[in-house]
Design a protein that fits this description.
Strand order of the largest sheet: 3-2-1-4-5
Order of helices and strands: EEEHEHEHEEEHHHEHHEH
Number of strands: 10
Helix content: 25-40%
Shape: globular
Radius of gyration: 19 Å
Bound molecules: adenosine-5'-diphosphate, zinc ion
């Protein structure tokens, strides 16, 4: 079965052809310009590929209310030309196949749960710690939606005393996860690019504290069976043991499950799919759209 995948990002649009198991056969990338310029590139790519359905994982926020006439629209982005853009509808009308859409992190969460680090689990939370911070949750085998979609990157944290910039840098919130712990926040706080900070720098202790608070909040709210941490900042693999240790300290034995108390090394883990999570997730969203068509 041939399925189409679109990873819609703020800088590039990655289009791919693959199958229902998340295998990618070919891909192409187009710069994200204005919709009038970018959409013909995308439509042109998929037009003659004989796909049975298309899945989109997109930057957001998105309207994911299937009963809304604006389902599948990008909503409030500052990206010129894309606010209120009907991304799903435009592709549905052009390609005339079922089109599924979700946020980029939800796509990655679905892929990690079905075929990645959480293969076989019906419950998992995936975070990307990169230019932004976003999280997606699989609950009961399905992606979690609600009024809109979760915005886990904006959960509020408590500052640590060693943090010289305890309010962080989110333009909307003092002390939210993204503003405290994304790549750009590390850079602004310490005046050095995150890539260049040595593992023993205090920056990583501060980062560990915030990401451990994130894990604790996630555990107590959603009780996932696994937490997957991806994104550029998590290329610093020394963070994993630090975050696991601090998460256990902060939980203080309260959530008494062996998966956490005895097996935390397999509970807070890196992604298994790496750079393929976006494409694989989009293919799985295409499959979901086909099933419910
Ligand atoms: P994006 O979030 O833009 O899709 P990434 O997940 O690669 O892309 O995140 C980019 C951010 O991650 C940058 O802010 C950068 O500071 C940070 N980053 C990238 N690579 C590393 C690294 N090896 N170590 C620490 N931080 C990194
Ligand atoms: Zn915020």
């Amino acid at each position: 079965m041939l399925l189409g995948a679109l990873e819609a990002g703020g800088t590039k649009m990655v289009c791919a052809i693959g199958d229902e198991n998340g295998n990618v056969f070919e891909r192409a990338s187009f710069p994200t310009r204005m919709p009038e310029e970018t959409m013909p590139d995308i439509i042109g790519y998929f037009k003659d590929k004989k796909i049975e359905a298309l899945g989109i994982s997109s930057f957001g926020p998105l309207n994911l209310d299937e009963t809304s006439p604006d389902f599948g629209n990008i909503t409030t982005t500052p990206k010129p030309g894309w606010a209120n853009y009907p991304l799903r509808r435009t592709l549905l009308e052009a390609l005339k196949v079922p089109v599924g859409i979700d946020t980029d992190v939800n796509g990655a969460a679905l892929a990690e749960a079905r075929i990645g680090a959480g293969k076989g689990l019906d419950s998992l939370v995936y975070y990307t710690i990169g230019t932004g911070i976003g999280g997606g949750a699989v609950v009961g085998g399905k992606l979690l939606h609600g009024l809109v979609h979760p915005e886990m990157g904006h959960m509020l944290l408590r500052p640590v005393k060693d943090d010289p910039t305890p309010k962080g840098f989110c333009p909307y919130h003092d002390g939210c996860l993204e503003g405290m712990a994304n790549g750009p926040a590390i850079e602004k706080r310490w005046g050095v690019s995150a890539k260049e900070l040595p593992p023993e720098h205090i920056a990583w202790d501060v980062e560990t504290e915030y990401l451990a608070q994130m894990c604790v909040n996630t555990i107590v709210v959603l009780s996932p069976k696994k937490i997957v941490l991806g994104g550029g900042v998590m290329h610093q693999l020394h963070l994993f043991p630090k975050i696991r240790k601090r998460t256990l300290e902060l939980l203080n034995g309260y959530v008494a499950h062996s998966a956490i108390l005895e097996d935390i090394d397999n509970y807070i883990v890196p992604p298994a799919l790496g750079d393929n999570a976006g494409a694989a997730g989009s293919l799985l969203l295409a499959l979901e759209a086909l099933k419910s068509a």
